[in-house]
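ok trying again, last paste got cut off:
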Amino acid sequence: MSATGDPIALIGAGRRWTAAELEAEVSRTAFRLVEAGTRVLATLLDNGPAWVVADRAAARAGLVHVPLPLFFTPPQVAHALHAAGVDTLLAPTQAAPRFAPATSTPWPLADDTVACIRLPAAPVHMPVGTGKVTFTSGTTGAPKGVCLRADAMQAVAAGLIEALEPLGIRHHLCALPLAVLLENIAGLDAPLARGAACTVLPLSSVGLSGSSGFNAAVFDAAVRQHQPDSLILLPQMLRAWVSHLTTWRQAAPASLKFVAVGGAAVGLPVLRAARALGIPAFEGYGLSEGASVQTLNLPGDDRPGSAGRPLPHAQLRVGPEGDIEVAGSLFAGYLGDPTAVPAWWPTGDLGRIDDDGFVHIHGRRKQVLVTAFGRNVSPEWVETAMRSEPAIGQAVVFGDGQPALSAVLWPAAQDVAAHALDAAVRAANASLPDYAQVRHWVRAQGDFTPEAGLATPNGRPLRAAIQQRHAAALAAHSEPMFPELQ
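nice, full thing came through this time. structure:
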């Protein structure tokens, strides 16, 4: 409660906002956006009250909001702005020169000042009712825009409120980027709709950097300082926190009632270790095309190792090819793709639903890797960057469910030394966003040829065979990703 007895809705780095104050700021910002002629608003902002106000103001004004993660590379940002027909961008003032010669004006926003950048944009066709376009992390470098309607997002938030109501959650700490749909819907919209308070700090204050950098000590200090009831974590964040607590022989803060873990598979041993340390960790499953969370384990309704049962808004079934299919809160369509969305959406995830209704996800049908940080990466994209370096002849990338990507490399010539390969990897990494960079590599035992059993007759690498042949070397180089976690 505030000094006046009004409920607190938002806690930033320097101020607490009551529900009434937040509502007033949202209304003022919505009016200014409409007055400016905004149709499609993009935000490229750190977590904080300014992001929250911009998001809610866009919805209030009936605009399309395009949240852009700070870890997107400049080409990815440019692609998203163009693809969505963005006419107004809110970004840190220091970022304004990147978008010259576009007109930039300082804008007061929720006790902060951001750059309001007006962009030349032609209208882009979007499905009727689109209220938000969330871009995936980009499996090929060019992120794909998922168009969402307000009713789908509200249905997910309502389903989460209903499912979590018995826990009495009153305070949520946002530990993921708000530009990521999972935190936006489950960590902001749902708590605020229930009347809970949300703490929204700069990402560095909760230990995050880029898309995959995580300092568990900083995160742990933030949790202890703010004493939230709930958190949402990615699997690698949970693993790192468990490691930190184990090393320092500490338990998690007693304030925690629920820690949702999603974005990629968690693993039963990690869940057990987390719970032994007092972290009430529960795994869930979702996707952007379903407006985020679809299933969730809950206290008293929990099957560790599964992704939980469907939430009230969601329907799931297994298709004829073994793919999980979802319905109930589906997206409106992909940006630039007129294909109608079917009543049941094939997720591309293989899985099963057991007799008690718990969903078990077995893996991806396609080659797309999903890292432990929940980032989707096409190995072909990274391999192309690697092979663009003169020293590298062939490259095969792995990393599904791992905190970082690894690669098996075959040099362009037999006499290429290890230091030259290392320099080539570093050079290729410079062209990739951090979540798609290769952190560990090993030299192949031989060329990837059909004769060696490492390629198809037409020269395509046989990934499983290459991984099996080099399993010991890859395992030896798989840790550590973050020096501070040793």
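cool. The first helix runs from residue 19 to 35. Residues 126 and 148 are 10 Å apart (CA to CA).
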